[in-house]
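We treat protein structure as text, and this decision shapes the records that our systems exchange. The tokens are whole numbers drawn from a learned vocabulary of local backbone shapes. One such record is reproduced below, unchanged from the form in which we store it:
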Amino acid sequence: MKKSKIVKVKWSMGYLSKRNNLYGKVFKGEGFGSRIDFPTVNIFNESKTRPYIYIIEEEDYGEGCAFVTPDVSEIHFFSKIQCEKEFLNCKIISEVNRPRKSEYSNYISVLDIYMKGLDGLR
């Protein structure tokens, strides 16, 4: 009997060049961002984009930062917007790299907490 090779697939920006969009239906969130004057747009991760943090661009709303989980994505646009759309299609520009601990050894950032949660998914 022939042994099959186990091939590990690593997600990378090279893979994203083929599927470089984050898209999905918009849904109403809890409104926490709006309460602190930093509204977000929540979408279902219909594109099945790998969970991570991305810089994205949307045709009408401009650039933003997307926190992607397996099921949903929360997008913070860099300009104030009022989302009227039922479906968003965003181009992924780049990944946001994990910060180096030496740059801020005395505190924990939001990115640390989010990345720790993503580590738990793997």
Notes: DSSP finds three helices and six strands in the chain.
